[in-house]
Structure formats: structure tokens, C-alpha cells
């Protein structure tokens, strides 16, 4: 059995066939969305994971 990496990937990876969608950002996912794989045409759920980071600087500079 093949274990696919489908979590925290840079692109949306199909959990059925492992196809990596090169146009992940074109899917306009907000939270969770049902997507049809471009390769095997099966439906699956994709969730967008965004990392929050902070930067700070002095006011006077
Ligand atoms: Zn697929």
C-alpha cells in the first residue's frame, strides 16, 4: 500500500492517485472545498492551510 503525502503540501495532492495540481491557487479555496482531480477525476476535499507570521519594526525608523 502506497502512503501519499496529502497534508501540508505546497500544491493540492489528490488522495486517490497522488496527482499534484500545479494550479492549486487557481481553485480559490476558502476553508474547505470539494475538488475534482484533474488526473483521475474523482472528488475529494481540499483544505487551505495558511501559516500566520509576524514582523515588527520601530516606529521612528
Ligand atoms: Zn486523482
Strand content: 15-25%
Category from helices, strands and their pairing: mainly beta
Task: Compute the number of helices.
Answer: 0
What is the number of strand segments?
4
Descriptive notes:
- By secondary structure, this protein is an all-beta fold.
- The protein has a domain at 12-47.
- Helices cover 0% and strands 23% of the residues.
- It is built from no helices and 4 strands.
- It has strands spanning 12-13, 20-21, 32-36, 43-47.
- Strand 1 (12-13) and strand 2 form a beta hairpin.
- The model has no long low-confidence stretch (mean pLDDT 89).
- Zinc ion binds next to loops.
- Residues 14, 16-17, 19, 37, 39-40, 42 line the site of zinc ion.
Features of this protein?
binds zinc ion, elongated, 23% strand, two-stranded antiparallel sheet, mainly beta, single chain, 61 residues
Summarize the structure.
The protein has 61 residues and is mainly β. The protein is built from no helices and four strands.
Topology:
Layout: E1 12-13, E2 20-21, E3 32-36, E4 43-47
Antiparallel strand pairs: 1-2, 3-4
Bound molecules: zinc ion.
Amino acid at each position: 500500500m502506497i502512503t501519499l503525502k496529502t497534508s501540508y503540501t505546497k500544491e493540492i495532492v489528490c488522495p486517490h492517485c497522488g496527482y499534484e495540481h500545479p494550479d492549486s491557487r487557481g481553485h480559490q479555496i476558502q476553508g474547505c472545498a470539494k475538488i475534482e482531480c484533474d488526473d483521475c477525476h474523482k472528488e475529494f476535499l481540499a483544505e487551505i492551510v495558511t501559516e500566520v507570521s509576524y514582523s515588527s519594526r520601530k516606529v521612528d525608523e
